[in-house]
Amino acid sequence: MHADASTRIWVILARDSDVAVVLRRGPSKQVLLIRWHRRTDTFYPGQWFKGSLYPLRCDLSPSGERFLYFAADFQQPYYSWTAVSRPPYLTALALWPKGDCWGGGGQFAREDRIVLNHRPAEMALADPFRLPSSVTVVPFGARSGWGEDSPLHDSTLERDAWVLADPGKATSHKRKAPIGYSFDPPRTWSKPNPCFGTLSLRFMLTGYFRRGGPKRVTEAALVTGGESTGLGEVDWADWDTHGDLLFARDGCVYRQRVEPNRLGDAVCILDARTHRFRSLEPRAEALTWDDPLDLSDRSSVEA
Question: Domain range spanning residue 132?
């Protein structure tokens, strides 16, 4: 069964906390940032962005308190840019103009160290933005600012314990074909469960540019003892810190408990399909680098 193309979801998990962000896209060129507290599965919808936001080039700081993202509105004065914000807000605390869609985005190497995927001439902050003196910015290697999602996304996956199990083989199809590119075998990344070492998650890229569907067609599967159990098409999948399976499909986020010799039922913890664009001003503390965020006035959804 094909996943719903109208609402797409990508998730980024913080490395040192239970915070995550959900990037909810739909309709085209409208993206909502949602803050997710995984310990309680509470979700805080935040600001929308009208334009293109590139989830595979984004990152969360280890604490989850700062969000690094690459976006484009294809208009003056910036056309495209990389910025840092306080999730669930997208209002920029720091902004680096890019001017095209090669490279862009980056990683948090540490809470106070940003790896910026820009070319040397694109490393300067726009006026009047300033970084705290404790924060350093370095380029993303010798080819910083080039490529598209790769090689940045591959580097982020490797940092987060994913291993490339199969590079896959891409085949290009004619313009009117149902899909632009198919991968057979799929390009496959594998990640062991953090609590149950014999269980691993596979995330597979099976195609690009499906007609009337998503740009990236992806599937997931669980592998244990040499046996594979397919999850079908998903937008995103990963392990939670304590071993639960998390995945997104058809505009919803699911949690599936993993216990020794038993896999629980998948439970929908967020249905993001009904969210619609609305303007939201940031709170005062969201305009600071370190002040604690007060989320009490945000309409939350708790599982």
Answer: 1-160
